[in-house]
Amino acid sequence: MTDAMETVRAARASDKLSAHYLRAHLFSDFVELHGDRQGADDPAIVGGIGLFAGQPVTVITTSRGHKLEERLAKHFGQPEPAGYRKAARLVKDAARFKRPVLLFIDTAGAFPGKEAEYAGQGQAIAQCLTDIGQAQTPIISVIFGEGGSGGALALACGDELWMMENSMYSVLSPEGFASILWKDASRAAEAAELLGLTPESLLKGQVIEGVIKQEGSKSAQCREIARVLEEELAKLQKLPVSSLLNRRYERFRKF
Amino acid sequence: MRLFEKRNTISERHVKANKRAEDLVPSGLMQRCPNCGLEFFSSRLDKYKTCPDCDYGFRLTAKERLAWLCEESEEWFKDIQPSDPLHFPNYEAKVAAGKKKTGLNEAVWTGLAKIGGQETALAIMDPFFIMGSLGQMTGEKLTRLIEAATEKRLPIVVFTASGGARMQEGIYSLMQMAKVVNAVNRHKAAGLLYLVVLTDPTTGGVTASFASEGDITLAEAHAMVAFAGRRVIEQTIHEQLPKDAQRAETVLKHGFIDRIVLRQEEKGTLAWLLKYGGMQDD
Ligand SMILES: [Zn+2]
Fold first, then answer.
1. Size of interface A-B (CB pairs under 8 A)
2. How far is the CA of B52 from the centre of ligand 1 (A)?
3. pLDDT at residue B125, rounded to an integer
4. Which residues form the domain of A108?
5. Is residue B251 part of a domain?
6. Which of A57, A250, B185, B239 could be stapled to A52 by a disulfide with Cβ–Cβ 3.0 to 4.6 Å?
7. Which of B175, B181, B255 sits opposite A255 (nearest CB)?
8. Alpha-carbon torsion A38, B256, A128, A136, what sign?
9. Which residue of A has its CA nearest to B256?
10. Structural domains of chain B, count
């Protein structure tokens, strides 16, 4: 059995795949589209239209940034309400043209800030759950680092969720979990084990559709992601819209 | 009207001033309003349990609320038992304590009710059942209620009160957010009315899902309505959050709540909205 805390460390490693690298290597073209159409543009979510295996798809990624000022503006990859509203809008736009949606997630969670509360962080996440849950087009998400709580679920509520071998998905960080439940953040490793946040245990619990192997160079890993997504998209695109939506409903109904 | 009510009676002030006297008073005899700080004798609380000064609604069990909210009610799904998907240590004891405090099988009461003559599907979350946290079976009860309402073409009223996701159930708690929201959206697609009443406290994963999806959203006076916890925010932004930052009145000012309701007027307001807020020829 893999040590869950090892997985947590790997999911947080600074030299892992970045959203920028994924956008550059999975899509032959990518045109970024900004804004939530309600007065803001959150840089912690990058979205647009890309070409994937010859077809246009809507691409949405969380983004941590590289330089310090960039990382600060993006709150280290923790989206604000405007980010979730941008994602929801781009998914709705995609559905109008039957364009599939691919989402890539690496976030500790939604940003816990004062302005984020005032701007309705909770409502913005709920909006994503609704708009992504209802959009009439195939939607696949991939967690490639941290998948933290409702802030990750908001972008992972479509037809399928895949996880990279070195990624995690949980209701709360193991440190937060340990300090809330045991008032002792140093018991994080124990918490990680109990939370079942590894791709392996989440696959067993049917929370995710599959695990993407991470072997070889980063470009080899991207080829593996592309292979999986191409195969899955082809399956989903064959389904009539009504069965796609029923399947999506059942995907969460079973829990 | 409230202008003529005395803030403190002499005897109350006496108890407050005399530390030793306070120690002699059996616990539970005095109440302190968490919103305005007023201390008063518990005997001044009626069935609505609101602060005599600021109208803050003290936390109620689902059954206490049920007692004054509806003329008739029928409980549904009371045989469902909480799940323990992580085999969490000592979880059974927490669940047992929650059941004892609330008389419920889970953190939400679900059923059919008549409010001011209007028939509706009704869910009341209970803040005394593991802090009203959203467990797998809390979500299951809500989803079954919503699906039944869609099938029977009934409107839904949901009273939210929640500390958020139930940590002891891990990711399976998180999944309830999407599960319940999806059911709400099918209900809406059927042209039916979904009313939400936010009560103290509504936070975390519940705020980020079905609590924010109401066709009409009411909130009780001074109820805490938040996504992130105050401490987490303050540690992140390194500044103090204003005292009222997560109060319903502030959330209303930012556009996320339709109306603040006083408990005493809730039944009437809900009955009116159930009658006129949805489709008229259904
Ligand atoms: Zn008060």
1. 144
2. 7
3. 98
4. 4-253
5. yes
6. A57
7. B175
8. negative
9. A120
10. 1
Would you say the pTM of this structure is higher than 0.90?
yes
- For chain A, what is the domain count? 1
Nearest to B68, CA basis, from B77, B57, B52:
B57
DSSP SS3 for A71: helix
Q: Tell me the residue range of the domain where B177 lies.
A: 59-276
CA of B246 to the centre of ligand 1 (A): 16
Q: Which residues 2-61 of B have a C-beta within 8 angstroms of A?
A: none
Nearest CB among B179, B204, B228 relative to A253 is that of B179
Any domain includes B40: no
For residue B227, give the CATH number of its domain: 3.90.226.10
Identify whether B4 is part of a domain: no
- Amino acid letter, B184: V
Min Cα separation B204/chain A (Å): 7
Cα–Cα distance list, B58 to A1, A60, B8, B63, B127 (Å)? 48, 43, 18, 14, 11
pLDDT for the residue B15: 42
Distance CA B261, CA B197 (A): 9
Tens digit of pLDDT at every position of chain A (255 positions)? 459 999 999 999 999 999 999 999 999 999 999 999 999 999 999 999 999 999 999 999 999 999 999 999 999 999 999 999 999 999 999 999 999 999 999 999 999 999 999 999 999 999 999 999 999 999 999 999 999 999 999 999 999 999 999 999 999 999 999 988 888 888 999 999 999 999 999 999 999 999 999 999 999 999 999 999 999 999 999 999 999 999 999 999 999
CATH number of the domain at A187, please.
Answer: 3.90.226.10
